[in-house]
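[retry 2/3] RNA helicase: previous attempt timed out, resubmitting with same input.
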Amino acid sequence: MKNTFMTLGIDRKLVGILNENGIVEPTSIQLQTIPLLLEGRDVIAQAQTGTGKTLAFVLPIMERIDTTKDFVQALIITPTRELALQITQEAKKLAPAKDMNILAAYGGQDVEKQIHKLKGDIHMVIGTPGRLLDHLRRGTIDFRQLKILVLDEADQMLHMGFLQEVKEIIEQTSKERQTMCFSATIPEEIQSIAAKHMKKPARIRVHSKNITLDEIKQIVIETTDRGKQEALLQAINEYNPFIAMIFCRTKRRAKALNEALQSGGYNSDELHGDLSQAKRERVIKALREAKIQFLVATDVAARGLDIEGITHVFNYDIPQDSESYIHRIGRTGRAGETGMAVTFATPKDQNALNIIEKQIKMKLPRQKTLKERILQDETLGDTSKKPSRRGRDEFKGNRKGKESTFKNHKDTRKSATKESDFKKDKDTRKSADKNSKRDGGYKSSKEKHTSRDGKNRSFSKKDSPGKFSNKNNRKR
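[retry 2/3] RNA helicase: success.
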């Protein structure tokens, strides 16, 4: 018999809402966890992001909560505001089937409004450790009758330093509760929490051929610190993403890179901890609606984001460890879709990259930047022939693709979608081809690469995407 949500024990009304939202068949993690959770078992579930973990615990909660009782019966702890908001949105879609009241409790919102809502009959709370502890210390929330506790993205709460706060929250919940732990990885510290606070938990792991998602093509582009920004822009033009996330190590680097992209005509925005909660929510909403094409983000801000349509992830700065790498690339290739992850590695990143590869048990294929590959092709080719135009043709084709893919965003990246730009410069490019052959480089009238004195590259608002300028180039 075919597995459906109803055969798993989910109420017909809930299944109806799922079907209305295009969810018909349960995923592997849902098939394995839902029956156990409906029985009241404690569960530790290990699965990659994008495998349907949220519904794996939200649906059993919906079935097990008694909405005739007016106290908090379920608590979901998440590492970030964005993930708390995301889970809340999913849960509220299902709530009408059970007349359930749900509250999201995270920082950046008016605490007094949350306190006012908590005076009503709230059945489920979804929140971050800091704000939950704030309510506990104020005495505005009570978990002593809690029936279900969920730790979502548990490994990331550990990485972000929330382990002690999580322990403190757990200590103030009912000892008779059911506990669920969902995580992409299960470090020793998480296993320690499980041993102390869970009752003979069932351990579930959704296997894939590799530790990282099989649906994601992963490559490493070798570059330098100075050439990294140019390498990113060349990769964007080469792979032509529908929506892409670009990860930076720090807030300052994310902000600087977003400004560079915008000045180059790219439709981008940034997401990091320095933004107000209102701004962060606006950015995420715009990304969901495909109103922006590139999101430059830090690890913390992007934890657990589930955005449909993300085709590419660019690791502009290499992740600090394999767990961060898994979470980053998990923004694409979600729910069975394919995706691509590109990591930019400088010589000083090689040790960190080797460690990541060892931990994920996979050797990531290396390649040179697009510019270097074009130069290599020209060097290896017949010198009597005209220099290769493949790189420019690829850029040209990608720009055409963007014109049709983003027809609703005609006001963005205009220079990247105007075929006339290329026709007008036809004669100039032919001349540049001759120069390229003579100088051994890839140059055009619209492109000026790093000067021989090695000065940093800058972007001009006049330049179309993928075209670069260097204000410090010597005049010839």
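[retry 2/3] RNA helicase: The first helix runs from residue 5 to 8.
[retry 2/3] clearing retry counter.
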